[in-house]
Amino acid sequence: KGESIHKNKIQSDRQKALKIYAAVDDKLPNSEKGKVLLQEAYLYSLTSNENKSISIYQDIIKKRKYHRPDIVALAYVQLGDIYFYRGEFKKALYNFDESLKIDKNPRKAYSYYRSAWSDFNLGDSQKAQRKLIKLLSDDSFSGSKVPTSASFKDDASRDLATFMAKNGIKTSDLQLLANLSPEGSKRKNLVYLASELDRTGKKQSALIVWKKLGTKDLSFEDQLEGQIKITRIQYDLGNKKNLIKELNTSISMLKNSPCPDNTECAIGQQNLKKILADWGKSEEREPSTELIFAFKVFSESFSDYEMSFWAAQASMKRKDYQQAFEGFRNAALILSKLNPTKDPKKDKIFNNSLLNAIESAERSNSKELKLVSYKLYLDLNPTGKNFYLVKYQMAHWYYDYNKYP
Q1: Span 63-81, mean pLDDT?
Q2: Cα separation, 351 vs 147, whole angstroms
Q3: How many CB atoms lie within 10 A of CB 193?
Q4: Sequence-distant (≥ 6) Cβ neighbours of residue 13 within 8 angstroms
Q5: Given 137, 200, 214, 334, which residue has the most CB atoms within 10 angstroms?
Q6: How many C-beta atoms lie closer than 10 Å to residue 310's C-beta?
C-alpha cells in the first residue's frame, strides 16, 4: 500500500540513484564496479526499463574477466529471472544453467530451482522432477544463501509434488516425497499430491496416495478426510464393489466415538452423501442394485429420510415394489418424528412418501402390503388432505377381501 501511495516519490528517488551511479561508474575500481552495476541494473528494472537492465547484465557477462565470478553468476541469475517472468523459458534456462557453471555462484540453490521450473515450463517435467530431487537431497546446495530456509524447502518440496503429479507416481515416490519434505510439511505435501493427481484425472494414483496417508500416524479427522476421498475416487473410477466397501468403512468411521459434536464428522457425512447423490444422478434412468444398497445403508446408519426416499424411488424404477414400499415407509417414519408440517420441504417428502408407499404396495399386488400402506398413512398423517380418500381405499380393501374389522 505504501508503495502505491508514495509511487511518484519512490520512482523519483530511484531516478536520482541511477544518476548518482552513472556519475561514479567510471571512477570505481573493477573490484567494486560489478556490485554497483548489478544494483544499477536492478533499479532500471524497477523503473520499467527492463531492456536497459538486460543490456547491463549482458555487458557484465561479456566483460567477465574484469569482474569477480560471483558478480558474473548473479548477472546470469538476474538475466534468467527477467526471461523467466517474460515467459521466455529457453533463454531463462540457458542463463540459470550458465550461472550454475560458476562455483562462486552465491545463489546456486535458487538457480537450480529456477532451472527446474524452466524445464517444467518447457514440457520436460521428468527432468524438472530429477532436478528438484537433487536440490532437496544434495548437501552441496547447503552453502547457498536464503534457499536453505524452511520456507524455501517448503516451496520446493510442494513443487516436487506438483511435478510428481504431472509425471505419475510409483509407490516409492511417496516415501521419497515424505523424506524430502520438512517435518511440518510431510502430510501436507502428500495430501496436495493426492489432490493434484485426483484433479488431473490420475484416479488410481490418487487412490494409492490416500491409502498411504491412511497408514500414517494421523489424527482421526485427517484419517476421516482421507477415507472420504478414497470413497469418492472409487466412485469416480466406477468400481462399485470397492465403492461399497469404502462406503462401509467411511460410515463405520462416522459412527465412531470421536464423531458426536465433531464438525469435521458433520462435513464428512455431507461429503459422503454428496458422493451418493452424484451416483444417484448418474444412474437416474437405470439404477443399479448396488446404488439402492448404498442408499439403504446410509439411510439406516444416519436415519436419513432423503436417502431412504431416493432408495425407494430407485427401487420403483427397477419394479421392486416390496423394497420400494420399505423405503417410502422408512422415510415417512423418520419424518414423522421431525414435525414435517413446519418445513415445506420435509412436508412434501413426508406426504409423497406416504402416497408412494400406497402406490408401491398396490403395484406389488400384495393384499397384506396394501392394508399396511393404508394404515401407515392414517396413523402418521391423520390431518392429511388425502386422509378420507385413503380411509375409503381401506374400507374398499375390507370389502374386496371379505375381511371386516
Answers
A1: 93
A2: 66
A3: 29
A4: none
A5: 334
A6: 25
CA dihedral 288, 293, 296, 302 (to 10 degrees): -120
Q: Which one, of 278, 191, 196, lies nearest residue 234 by Cα?
A: 278
**Residue 256 DSSP SS3:** coil
Question: pLDDT, tens digit, for every residue of 8-18?
Answer: 555 555 555 55
- 380: part of which helix (H) or strand (E)? helix 367-380
Q: Nearest CA to 102 among 67, 129, 82, 72?
A: 72
- Alpha-carbon distance of 85 to 264, in angstroms, equals 41
Provide the whole-model pTM. 0.71
- The answer to whether 198 touches 206, Cβ cutoff 8 Å, is yes
Measuring CA to CA, which residue among 377, 386, 337 is closest to residue 353?
Answer: 377
Among 140-144, 190-194, 251-255, 303-307, the minimum mean pLDDT is found in 140-144
Phi-psi sector, 404: left (phi>0), alpha (psi -120 to 50), beta: beta
Q: Scanning the structure block, which residue is given the C-alpha cell 445403508?
A: 297
Shortest CA distance to 313 belongs to which of 398, 23, 301, 299? 299
- Buried/exposed 105-115: b ≥16 CB within 10 Å, e otherwise: bbbbbbbbbbb
Residue 28: half-sphere exposure toward Cβ, Cα within 13 Å: 16
Reading the block at residue 46, the C-alpha cell is: 524497477
| Positive or negative: CA dihedral 245, 227, 288, 321 | positive
Q: What residue ranges define each of the domains in the chain, with the CATH number in brackets?
A: 302-405 (1.25.40)
Strand ranges inside 166-248, DSSP E: none
d(CA 78, CA 283): 57
Alpha-carbon distance 236 to 240, whole Å? 10
d(CA 71, CA 60): 8
CB 163 within 8 A of CB 129: yes
Q: Which residue has the higher pLDDT, 138 or 3?
A: 138
Rounded Cα gap, residues 235 and 272, in angstroms: 11
Residue 67 is placed in which grid cell?
569482474
**Does the pLDDT value for residue 144 go beyond 60?**
no
Cβ within 8 Å of residue 306, ≥6 positions away: 331, 349
- The answer to whether 153 and 138 are in contact (CB under 8 A) is no
The closest alpha carbon to 314, from 335, 291, 297, belongs to 291
- Cα(36)–Cα(87) distance, integer angstroms: 27
